[in-house]
Amino acid sequence: MSTNQNIKVAVDAVVFGYTSREGLSVLLIKRNIDPFKGSWALPGGLVGNQETLEDAVQRELSEETGVNINYLEQLYSFGQQGRDPRNRVISITYYGLVKPDGFELKANTDAADVKWFNIKKLPKLAFDHQAILQVARTRLQNKMQYEPVGFELLEEKFPFSELEKLYMAVLDRHIDRRNFKKKVSKFGFLEETNEKQLLDGAGRPGNLYRFNEQKYFELKEQGISFEI
Amino acid sequence: MSTNQNIKVAVDAVVFGYTSREGLSVLLIKRNIDPFKGSWALPGGLVGNQETLEDAVQRELSEETGVNINYLEQLYSFGQQGRDPRNRVISITYYGLVKPDGFELKANTDAADVKWFNIKKLPKLAFDHQAILQVARTRLQNKMQYEPVGFELLEEKFPFSELEKLYMAVLDRHIDRRNFKKKVSKFGFLEETNEKQLLDGAGRPGNLYRFNEQKYFELKEQGISFEI
DNA sequence: TCAAAAGTGTTCTTCGTACACCCATGA
DNA sequence: TCATGGGTGTACGAAGAACACTTTTGA
Q1: Where do the domains of chain B lie, and which CATH numbers do they carry?
Q2: Segment B54-73, tens digit of pLDDT
Q3: In sequence order, what E strands does B42-188 have?
Q4: Contact status of A80 with chain B (Cβ, < 8 Å)
């Protein structure tokens, strides 16, 4: 059993982005080699002998998509036989969060195309990537409810309503504005700036807020736990 | 990057057991080959070309320890270079739960010895297994608070106090008996039998309870969520 | 009759939730 | 002046936390 093992190790990444225009989106590449040539798939590829798993993810993302990832966390490892028709490949998957200003894409040699897809309008995906994406979505939903990772999807300064809409988009349910504000404010890691939102249409401009990560870590040290 | 990848794939398992006598325990093997010959380590080994990751874990456990695993869940994948001094090995780790009556051990060819160690009296471990164990412990603590996995560590029928002591051992804090009973009973997946505990000493014998898994799944379907 | 462990209810506080009107701005 | 979206407080009910005495058994 310990001799002649012939299994390849890959990484794949589910990268989430959010804008209030587009909602919650996922970054996909169009494959330009077989198998699944022409299909949309998660960015990813084989791990180099000398690089860590995280480095491999970062490298693949920059090779294939050009995005700047802001938060990266290991998701799950998939190892079923037949998930890649060529060889036995186990894939260690990650999910990542990108701020809206890191949204510019450039498809590269390895990919025929790169695009953001709204989470509700996904194409058919190659391999078992549909299942991976589902796991990632569920994980993000859970994670956002007990750690303030949502801020990794917003600009540095944002109106409160952005945060609220983000939570509604990810959790896919309505949230009461007043209760949500009360709950988030209570923790004390959100700073009000004295700037106001720049408007794109009518309506009263909201105050801009900033997430104080330093403060959050202090509170976490003290055992205060975030929950939405 | 895609040519001549030379990385081995292994699985390792953190197996937890519980008895009120011994408290929360972890199953370790004594290595009989180098590196770390003579050190205690988590059971595990390389994955065969034709087996799933879960199968590999089950096989290693039965080869090395002879325990019957009751619940198995993937934990995390560790891939740092240097974690195995021989080759680049990435390890996909699992944690498992064993009922007290599956406690009999038999060390086998692959291991010089197998033993249960109380979680508070662990020896130095080989490789990065100390870190893996820490991740597993934290995961178990979290998991037990939102899914009733604790029952996988108890006999089929158990006095209520067993459940309570188990939670105290895993969470490492005091739990109020009355509040705990109220909370657990409320869910309705715990059945009271009309048998009573067999005593080992003085004290009033407790009623025996049984976990109704069927009922739990029904409740879960209805969106009722377990939380301690 | 004593020691050991199990069984059981009430009160108080905290948190979650439901809910509607006024304000600032651009068109 | 109208339409759009932001800002704000209160009241009710549910759940969590603190807390002590009685019962059953073996020695």
Answers
A1: 7-143 (3.90.79.10), 150-221 (1.10.10.10)
A2: 999 999 999 999 998 999 99
A3: 44-46, 71-78, 89-98, 111-118, 157-159
A4: yes
